[in-house]
Structures are given as structure tokens and as C-alpha cells.
Design goal:
Blueprint (H helix, E strand, L loop, with lengths): L2 H24 L7 E3 L5 E3 H17 L23
Antiparallel strand pairs: 1-2
Helix pairs in contact: 1-2
Length: about 80
């Protein structure tokens, strides 16, 4: 495995740990807030918090990369040149 892929893998593991900490901390919580999005799919407070945390970490680690997320968008950047 090249160093580039090692760095990518390490970052992916770190991001998974961040997501795990947020989501599992609220898993099956009786007071978990869930909303219905315009497309009629559910989104929880944990979903939003997780995406924001991942965006923050990715933004600090990979400032030149575009971030495309389900809850806070970015799909309009998907076809631009560079890493997404």
C-alpha cells in the first residue's frame, strides 16, 4: 500500500470513529429528534451532527477537497475537477 493510500485509510478510520462516537451515543435514545426531509425520508439530530463533524475534520485535514454530503449538500460540486 502506498503512503497516499495509507493516509487515506487512516483518515477514513478516524472519520468512522468520529461518526461512531456521535451515532452510538444517541442510538435508541428515547429523546432522539427525527425530522422528515422534503423527500419524505427521515433525518435525525445525530445524522446532522455527524455530517457536520465529518465536514469539519475533512475540511481541516483536506482543505483542497470538496465535501458532498446528504444532509448539508454539495452535490453541485460533484462534477468539478479535483477530489470530492
Amino acid at each position: 500500500m502506498t503512503d497516499q493510500y495509507s493516509d487515506d485509510l487512516n483518515l477514513a478510520i478516524e472519520l468512522a470513529d468520529i461518526a461512531d462516537e456521535i451515532t452510538m451515543g444517541r442510538y435508541r435514545s428515547p429523546d432522539l429528534e427525527v425530522e422528515t426531509k422534503a423527500d419524505r425520508t427521515p433525518v435525525s439530530e445525530s445524522d446532522k451532527r455527524t455530517e457536520l463533524a465529518l465536514r469539519e475534520r475533512l475540511g481541516s485535514m483536506r482543505p483542497g477537497d470538496r465535501i458532498i454530503g446528504e444532509e448539508f449538500g454539495g452535490a453541485e460540486q460533484a462534477r468539478a475537477a479535483g477530489r470530492a
